[in-house]
Amino acid sequence: MITDTATAVSAQLSTETSVIYAGDYLNKLTGEQIEYECRRRIDAGCTDLIVNFSKTELVNSIGISILLGVIDIAEKNGAKVAFSDVNETTVELFDMLGLTKHVNIV
Amino acid sequence: MLHEHKLIHAFGALAELGQEITNRNNFQETIRTSLHLLSGALGIRRGAVARYSRFGHELNMLAVRGLGEDFPLSLLLTGEDERQFLSNGMAPIDIGEAQVLPFFQVHNVSFDQRRLELFVPLVVRDEIVGAIFLGEKATGEIYTSYDKEIICAMGQHIGVAIAQRNLMAEIERHSEENRRLFDEMRSTYHDTVKAFAAAIDCKDKYTEGHSVRVGKFSEIIAAELGWGTEEVEGAAVAGYLHDVGKLTVERKIINAPYRINAKESAELNKHPAVGYEILQPIHHPYTDVPLAAKYHHERLDGRGYPDGLYDREIPYIAKIVNLADSFDAMTTDRPYKARRPANDVVEDLTRNAGKQFSPEIVTAFLSGMLKELKGEDRTKRFRRLLGRDYMEAEGLATKVKYALNELAPTTPMTYIAAAGSVGSQTN
After folding, report:
1. Which residue from B81, B109, B152, B348 lies 20 to 30 Å from B411 (Cα-Cα)?
2. CATH code at A25?
């Protein structure tokens, strides 16, 4: 069952798995909210984070930095991160900057 | 191809950084965004931006990412570190190869644990303004010379942002200091003026406190005329100092317990011009103060002194002080004359409006008095100066209202009636 959260950037699939929607938040300073949400989910027992890019057309440098923050939080807490619904251009960018060495693209 | 993509991505980050630094007002957010842009441009996993304090010789962290909560928020530099960083300029320093400097020796373990690889001193106009710490890249590759050029270019932007902020803080500090000094000077000026007023009043035992009261009445008038704070202060100062010329008049003339003769009167009447001579060389914050002293005995009908000026020739401030001075003379006991009842004084002011006094100024003064009589103004300005009993004279409020109506008709009905009476006189 999908449960909406108050922050409207994530949904919980189960205790262990959460989906974080990158949306438009990612490319601005407000994208730090996504990091906080990941931390909150991990603290609540989540071990698998899925960052969904279905509504994200482009990812800029701020977005990359925030995603690196998400990866860092997950690695430090033994959680796994996967990126889903990523368009081809963004996958190339992730490859180029080394993000794909730390996450699975699904 | 990959190199081109990297270049385009980094160029985008550099452009955004430039925009961020010129547009944003919140310094903390600018620095946080700058660190994001730099990290995201090259896929750097962790880092920090610090500002250098010249006074504490320390780097204080402004933004930190991925270095853990126990990363020190402040790092000391030695004189040797400062010299080396200054001569190095903004070129990124490989932390692993810079162990000769005390800074890296002291923090070696901490930097190693966090896998910090690069240190970039931010040098602007030959001054260290801050530094950037950068960890490993997400690709796991070492930093290339191309990466370092990008870092250097972005570092320059961040350095300028910090330098600008420092400059603004310095300007604010100076501005605050100037404001404080200005307030102190103003306070000193006002204290000096009051001391002068007291000195003037000391000379005349019968009119003790006259200058101070004239200052306060002038202040009331200016406030009632809707003047700004500084102008009201100026009017008060003009009142305090209007009789400064009396300092040169013989005490026996000033204190004569009788009506003085023509010769003595001529001597006394020099005091406005003498006052002007005394006050003119002083740089007052309010330019009209000397003029108020010189012309406060002029009358609208040209029968005043020293120059027999007519209405429009008399400086406005002098008209204010003239009314304040005359009002105080009428409402205080003199050696040869007791103070006059309040109702009489109001009548006198009304009768002489347009002859001795400016009707506009009489109106402002009486309006202030009426507000207090009606309880609309609770500052008790008049009561403090004239005494409670004096202000509670029977029928005073009605008298003032009547006087104000005579001076400035306020309703169409009154206005038409007045116009009619003018018409009948003409016929």
Report:
1. B348
2. 3.30.750.24
Q: What is the mean predicted confidence (pLDDT) over B46-73?
A: 94
Q: Which two tokens stand for residue B402?
A: 């009547």
Per-residue model confidence (pLDDT) at position B425 = 35
For the four alpha carbons of A31, A34, A37 and A38, in that order, the dihedral sign comes to negative
Partner residue opposite B43 with nearest CB, options A68, A69, A72: A68
The pLDDT tens digits of the residues spanning B86-111 come to 999 999 999 988 888 999 999 999 99
pLDDT at position B268 over 60 = yes
Query: Pick the residue with more confidence: A2 or A101?
Result: A101
Q: What is the ipTM of this complex?
A: 0.90
- What does the H/E/C string look like for B81-99? HHHHHHHHCCCCEEHHHCC
Average the pLDDT over A74-83 and give the result. 94
Task: Please name the residue of chain B whose CA is at the shortest distance from the CA of residue A71.
Answer: B45
Residues of chain A neighbouring B69 (CB-CB closer than 8 A): none
SS3 B140: coil
Do the Cβ atoms of B139 and A97 come within 8 Å?
Answer: yes
* Chain B residues touching chain A at CB-CB below 8 Å: 2, 5-6, 9, 12-13, 16, 29, 32-33, 35-46, 65-66, 137-141
pLDDT at A6: 38
Q: Is the confidence at residue A101, as pLDDT, over 60? A: yes
Contact B9 A61 (CB under 8 A): yes
Report how far residue B137's alpha carbon sits from residue B155's, in angstroms, rounded to the nearest whole number. 17
Number of domain units in chain A: 1
Nearest to A62 among B40, B45, B139 (CB): B40
8 Å CB contact between A13 and A19:
yes
Domains in chain B, please, with CATH?
2-166 (3.30.450.40), 190-414 (1.10.3210.10)
Print the domain residue range for A53.
3-105
Chain B residues inside the 8 Å CB shell of A77? none
- Residue B418 pLDDT > 60: no
